[in-house]
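Aim 2, interim progress: modelling of the zinc ion-bound target.
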Amino acid sequence: MKVEGGCHCRKVRFAIEIEPPVTLLACNCSICTMTGFLHLIVPQECFTLVAGGEALTSYRFGTGKAEHLFCQTCGVKSFYRPRSHPESFSVSFHCLDNPEAIEAVEQPFDGRNWDAARQLLAKQEAPDT
Ligand SMILES: [Zn+2]
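Predicted structure of the complex, ligand included:
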């Protein structure tokens, strides 16, 4: 299904293609805890930035591998490029237009112990490897 979303002031708008039920990663790292970010990982070919590319600014910390993008006007991080999935975008589930209508299952991600959490997730995503 096609779903749209974006930031609070609506300068940043995107469209994604998803197949519910979707898995949401609830991460406990320092920045996700502060922002209440609930991750919906979307392959980049299923993500389209519709508007607001010029409104985005970025923030990096720690390893600098994740590029945290947020709107310069309203400050909302509606999506970004995650360290865990560099070929994908992580969309904030709360920033979708109608998240209540999407069947979703939450799964914890122990971002405070990032390397171990990423390994565990890789096993779940590809159990045969
Ligand atoms: Zn905004």
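The helical segments are 30-35, 114-125. Strands lie at 2-6, 13-17, 22-27, 38-43, 47-51, 56-59, 68-71, 79-80, 88-92, 104-109.
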